[in-house]
Amino acid sequence: MAIESVSETLKRELPALLRDDPDLRRYVLDLTRREYADRQQTEDRFDRILEELRQDREAQERKWAQQDRKWEQAQEENKRKWEEQDRKWKQAQEEQNRKWEESRTESRLLHKETMAQLQKHGRRISALGARWGMRSEASFRNALAGILEENFDIRVLNVNEYDEQGEVFGRPAQIELDVIIKNGLLLICELKSSMSKADMYLFERKARFYERRHNRKADRLIVISPMIDKWAEKFAEELGIEIYSDSSEVEEI
Length: 253
What we know:
By secondary structure, the chain is an alpha/beta fold.
């Protein structure tokens, strides 16, 4: 009972004693020092924990910053590659468009020049026919080819090739047609005194045979004849063949 009474008294009086008696306070602190960390130790430990947290945060921020830089570099590289590819594609498209436009321009100029000269000399052809008394297709063809070559910067070639497979006539035969070549353009022509629907059909088959044989697409198919059957005209339109029966009727394309 005495111990308990002392204990209760200490609990009640000790706070005031420690506050008022410095020596007692130092004695109690020295006596209980091992049971708890002093203020300096507590502050040091707290500072150490804060420093570790700070270092961890900075390390994590560096990792995120490095990752962001890598992502931005990857995005910039991808953007650069796409822009470079897009630039190359546009250049290729522009170059292709330029070549197509040059080809179309050359074709139109050749056609315009040829038709203008044909209009100028069309009646001369008729006059020559009347004066020379042409009676054969060969004579008509040679006269017209001569006038074309005389007045234009072109070559009129009479092509004669053997159709082994019979693609044109259904049996092996010699295939004859005329071609005009200028500045790389290819015009397949039929120079004939008269044209029927059957003649037009045969010309188209001969032209396609020439294209397959030489692996080259003709820029134009042209028939020049003063006498063209009306059914042949309709058939030529369906086949995409240009026909010129009289120089005064030529329209610019």
